Amino acid sequence: MKLQRKNRRALTLGALAVSGALALTACGSDDTSGGGEGSGKETAANANIKCDDAKGQLLANGSSAQANAIQTWVKAYSTACKDVQINYKPEGSGAGVTAFLQGQTAFAGSDSALKPEEIAESKKVCKDSQAIDLPMVGGPIAVGYNVPGVEDLVLDAKTLAEIFDNKISKWNDKAIEKLNPDAKLPDTKIQAFHRSDESGTTDNFTKYLKAAAPDSWSHEPDKAWAAKGGQSAQGSSGVAQQVKQTAGAISYMELSYAKDGINTVALDTGAGDPVEASVENATKAIADAKVVGKGKDLALELNYATKAEGAYPITLVTYEIVCEKGNKAETLPATKSFLTYIASQEGQDTLADQGYAPIPAEINTKVRETIASLS
User: Fold this and answer.
1) CA 65, CA 63: separation in Å to the nearest integer?
2) What is the DSSP letter of 284?
3) Which end of the chain, N or C, is less packed with Cβ atoms under 10 Å?
4) Which positions are annotated as binding phosphate (predicted)?
5) Secondary structure (3-state) at 72
């Protein structure tokens, strides 16, 4: 029976092809909707944003996975808090953490929680304290592909591992045919693309391969791509563009970037039915996560090998990384004000329409309490 897909693109707004600085300020937010239901929601949300003593410029860097969410948040926040100028550079999780640890930014966005050595290093920037992870954005990492004539494709962890490790090279390989008996798979070379930059998306994708197909994926999960072969592109927008324009291509990207003709793989996880990359299915996976951070650090442990019905296992959580104490006095009010808004119900409610999964309420309550205590 042919797999009946949900309308994936109906779940997402068009993702911006973000490159360079995402500089979003109050004076640059005048491209708001001209009216109707959407503008009413925005007005209501803006009315609940508390600016307090926030002012000046707020610099941040990091995850391109959350760039589309940040863009929406900054637009709403800047409309309410006109004395704050926010400049977020979506240069990847690795670049974001590096910039933060060098004291260049007020906070960083990362699709992976800080490593112990990074927490130790943060004590140089966070006076008498350390950096902490605040889970803020969730969502599925979709596996996008471009195989002419094939709109429904099922793959499992083993097959994906062998594709991205250059062991399966043709789309009509027997392993792929076995999972897709009704598809007309062409004798087309597979063009596997991975991120060229250090990326939390890569880290989470390879954690899935390692957890769900340990015999087929020998590389240790990391922000930097470790397997040989394949081709690379910069950022989430870069790999998405390559998939869109290259016949035979496949890559991994956040759902919000799988747009405009990019089909996505359904995963055979061992559950009763293949699982689609969707906000709903990612939320089921995140809800099963455990808080493993110490103290006020809220780092999560995801179950990448889940076989639960309807749970999409290639899911990431993007953290905002900030000092628990010792934040710079000139940026602390704006940092707390902005983070308070994006963790609020209004802020989280904007995520689903963009292909992101809101952080489960139980975890988000702890996030809000921690933001309120920043100093």
Assistant:
1) 5
2) H
3) N
4) 63-65, 93, 111, 199-201
5) helix
Angle formed at CA 206 by CA 188 and CA 290, multiple of 5 degrees = 140
- Please name the amino acid found at residue 43: T
> 172-204 pLDDT, tens per residue?
999 999 999 999 999 999 999 999 999 989 999
Coil, strand or helix at 239? helix
Q: Which residues are annotated as a binding site for phosphate?
A: 63-65, 93, 111, 199-201
Buried/exposed code over 270-282 (b: 16+ C-beta within 10 A; e: otherwise): eeeebbbbbbebb
Helix crossing, 67-80 with 36-47: angle to 10°? 70
Q: What is the pLDDT of residues 129-180, one digit of tens each?
A: 999 999 999 999 999 999 999 999 999 999 999 999 999 999 999 999 999 9
Predicted TM-score (pTM) of the model is: 0.76
Q: Tell me whether residue 12 is in a domain.
A: yes
Is 274 found in the same domain as 156? yes
Q: How far apart are CA 345 and CA 312, in angstroms?
A: 24
Which stretches does DSSP call E strand in 22-90? Answer: 22-25, 56-62, 84-89
In this structure, is the dihedral angle defined by the CA atoms of residues 165, 167, 171 and 175, taken in order, positive or negative?
negative
Contact present, 224 and 198 (Cβ < 8 Å)? yes
Q: Domain check: are 145 and 265 in the same one? A: yes
What is the rounded distance in angstroms from the CA atom of residue 42 to the CA atom of residue 246?
38
Please state the residue numbers annotated as binding site. Answer: 63-65, 93, 111, 199-201
3-state SS class at 156: strand
Which tokens go with 223?
A: 């922000």
Which domain, by its residues, includes 91? 8-137+324-372
Q: How far apart are CA 175 and CA 332, in angstroms?
A: 54
Residue 289 lies in a domain: no
